[in-house]
């Protein structure tokens, strides 16, 4: 396997050398208290901490606290502390869906807007600890809403703007949130997204389940027509005129919640991942600085949506805590044409660019000329996140986009981890295409086999982390039991990531993907159980089983086996109806790629669906079905193979 050694140009001015990385890493695991006592100082504390680490992964007693007696305000760290030194510097550089639309918002302006929105929230009765749900397009007001919530000590729950009314309603209920911030409509790839309409519907559904929304703050984006509920709905552009542009930040404990972010697991409904204030900010800002080798004055662009954790940590909190200029893009990679990313890079002289493998693969398919017709001379560091990046895509990104001038950092992490855990550091760590390379400071990965035995040296297995880091999630909102069960019960005293990984002879990490029933479709995480429950909520469906299969562009595609109710017929129309139904229930990202009507599903005698077999058939690899002798009715497999939807 090729190794790309750190180039001299990357070393010049880099934050750390290879030796420093090794020294810092050693100290971070041998003396975590000392290491983090020092690096915790990178954020401004109102009352400094005296305690650093107080964490336990012990069964029945999982408890994670960092800097627990310190107090701070996250929004003040992202705004107020920069005013004296960089008040006029651009904080958010916004690029609209339409290439003619852009806006630069300075730290001073952002501070004013955040204070105003904080005051509007206060005026509407929002208090410390209340949950504020944010359902927004990619406009600066999304970041304003997050920071405003943080400013007054409320807990935000951002819901991706592509989710359906049902999905939004479930999250309003889960977070018991009575305040919703949204926009009239979003704009993506020239198409309008009816956010307010979806939000109205979500409020109806949530109200039926007993969760009333009393305030809906609406940002005007497109000016499109929207329904209005007097007494509940408030226009942001009107409310902001009524309040002051000053709002003193609330003093928060390090372990006070900052946000909840719902994410899919292998079973049940999405979980509310809870992150707290101090450790999260220390970790997000430190990783942002070192992983991207961020230098003062640079333009940094992460193409994620703020609806995902990448947007939280690496569009909003990390970059703003570091006083960076963070670019926020409303649009999509291929609108108006597949050169858009690189045109934006040239337009704003972007230095650091962070995107997902699915976008890289799609743009690779559009042809090199779409890239080479642009300059990209400003680029210095390239990043990848969200799913395993195949070596071909990695190499194309490195060669064609970065012209071999820019190191590529493949960053592995999760919603639960708050920030990047395994990654190269530019200028310090040699690269291997397809490998996330080495752990960040304080992170101790470990491989275990299915019995929990530790695998030393070279090998493959289940990826665990043996000790806490400051950005780690603290609990599942409202369900600590589920937190322990999901992450700490599979392997004793370890955090289990749900991913499989391989460690090579050089100690480099290669993440191979989920080993549980979680799908990763174009970098979007989804539980097979969620898609199944959407399918069976259709009146004609009696049973469904969903698996992933390898997909050239999306990484994984969604393959559904559907058993119909007695007397229903297997038609093309019904197939389309089921796809539309799942989109309606969850959102377009969950659109099934293949639906196979299955008169029966392969089950064990105790009634458990044998997913291993379903995965093989979906992959068109049915020659290797393995042992089918435990099946209650081995005959069903023949029918499934015969009617498989994925013939190569
Ligand atoms: C899952 C987490 C973390 C931000 C975006 C996704 C997969 C993420 C990589 C990578 C291989 C990756 C894992 C992980 N994943 N980054 N660089 N290489 N796999 O966050 O939605 O919580 O998904 O994404 O499977 O468990 P998420």
From TrEMBL:
Protein name according to UniProt: Acetyl-coenzyme A synthetase
Known function: Catalyzes the conversion of acetate into acetyl-CoA (AcCoA), an essential intermediate at the junction of anabolic and catabolic pathways. AcsA undergoes a two-step reaction. In the first half reaction, AcsA combines acetate with ATP to form acetyl-adenylate (AcAMP) intermediate. In the second half reaction, it can then transfer the acetyl group from AcAMP to the sulfhydryl group of CoA, forming the product AcCoA.
Q: What class of enzyme is it?
A: ligase
The answer to whether keyword Magnesium applies is: yes
- AMP-dependent synthetase/ligase domain residues: 80-467
Q: How is it modified after translation?
A: Acetylated. Deacetylation by the SIR2-homolog deacetylase activates the enzyme.
Q: Which GO terms describe its molecular function?
A: acetate-CoA ligase activity; AMP binding; ATP binding; metal ion binding
Q: Where is the AMP-binding enzyme C-terminal domain?
A: 530-608
In terms of domain of life, where is this protein from? Bacteria
Short name of any one Pfam family annotated for the protein: AMP-binding
Q: Which EC number(s) does UniProt give? A: 6.2.1.1
């Amino acid at each position: 396997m090729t190794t790309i050694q750190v180039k001299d140009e990357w070393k010049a001015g880099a934050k750390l050398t290879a030796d420093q990385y090794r020294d810092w890493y050693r100290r971070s695991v041998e003396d975590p208290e000392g290491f983090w006592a020092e690096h915790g100082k990178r954020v401004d504390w109102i009352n400094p901490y005296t305690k650093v680490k107080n964490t336990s992964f012990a069964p029945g007693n999982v408890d994670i606290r960092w800097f627990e007696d310190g107090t701070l305000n996250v929004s003040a760290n992202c705004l107020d502390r920069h005013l004296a030194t960089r008040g006029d510097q651009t904080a958010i550089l916004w690029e609209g869906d339409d290439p003619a639309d852009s806006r630069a918002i300075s730290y001073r302006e952002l501070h004013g807007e955040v204070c105003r929105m904080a005051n509007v929230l206060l005026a509407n009765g929002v208090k410390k600890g209340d949950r504020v749900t944010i359902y927004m397009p990619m406009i600066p007001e999304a970041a304003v809403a997050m920071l405003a919530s943080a400013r007054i000590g409320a807990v935000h729950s951002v819901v991706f703007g592509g989710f359906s009314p049902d999905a939004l309603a479930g999250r309003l209920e889960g977070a018991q949130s009575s305040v919703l911030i949204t926009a009239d409509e979003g704009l993506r790839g020239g198409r309008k997204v009816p956010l307010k309409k979806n939000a109205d519907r979500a409020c109806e559904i949530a109200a039926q389940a007993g969760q009333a929304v009393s305030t809906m703050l609406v940002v005007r984006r497109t000016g499109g027509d929207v329904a209005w509920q007097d007494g509940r709905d408030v226009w942001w552009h009107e409310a902001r005129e009524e309040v002051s542009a000053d709002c003193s930040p609330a003093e928060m404990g390090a372990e006070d919640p900052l946000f909840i972010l719902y994410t899919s697991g292998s079973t049940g409904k999405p979980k509310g991942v809870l992150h707290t204030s101090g450790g999260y900010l220390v970790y997000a800002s430190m990783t942002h600085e070192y992983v991207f080798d961020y230098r003062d004055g640079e333009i940094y662009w992460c193409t994620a949506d703020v609806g995902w954790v990448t947007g939280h940590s690496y569009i909003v909190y990390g970059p703003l805590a570091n006083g960076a200029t963070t670019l926020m893009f409303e649009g999509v990679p291929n609108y108006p044409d597949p050169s858009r990313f690189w045109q934006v890079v040239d337009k704003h002289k972007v230095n650091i660019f962070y995107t997902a493998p699915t976008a890289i693969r799609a743009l690779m398919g559009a042809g090199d000329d779409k890239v080479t017709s642009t300059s990209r001379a400003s680029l210095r560091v390239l990043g990848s996140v969200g799913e395993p990046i195949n070596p071909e895509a990695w190499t194309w990104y490195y060669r064609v986009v970065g012209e071999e001038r820019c190191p590529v950092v493949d960053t592995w992490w999760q919603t639960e981890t708050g920030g990047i855990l395994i990654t190269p550091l530019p200028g310090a760590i040699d690269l291997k295409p397809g490998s996330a390379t080495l752990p960040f400071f304080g992170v101790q990965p470990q491989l275990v086999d299915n019995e929990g035995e530790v695998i030393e040296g070279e090998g493959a297995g289940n990826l665990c982390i043996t000790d806490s880091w400051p950005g780690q999630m603290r609990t599942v909102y409202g369900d600590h039991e589920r937190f322990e069960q999901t992450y700490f019960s599979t392997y004793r005293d370890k955090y289990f990531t749900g991913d499989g990984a391989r460690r090579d002879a050089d100690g480099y990490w290669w993440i191979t993907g989920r080993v549980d029933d979680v799908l990763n479709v174009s970098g979007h995480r989804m539980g097979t159980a969620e898609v199944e429950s959407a399918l069976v909520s259709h009146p004609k469906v009696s049973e469904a089983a969903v698996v992933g299969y390898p997909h050239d562009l999306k990484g994984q595609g969604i393959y559904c086996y559907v058993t119909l109710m007695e007397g229903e017929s297997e038609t093309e129309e019904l197939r389309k109806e089921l796809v539309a139904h799942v989109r309606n229930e969850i959102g377009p990202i969950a659109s099934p790629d293949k639906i196979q009507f299955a008169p029966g599903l392969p089950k064990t005698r105790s009634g458990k669906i044998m997913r291993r077999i379903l995965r093989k058939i979906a992959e068109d690899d049915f020659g290797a079905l393995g042992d089918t002798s435990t099946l209650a009715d081995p005959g069903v497999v023949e029918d499934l193979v015969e009617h498989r939807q994925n013939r190569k």
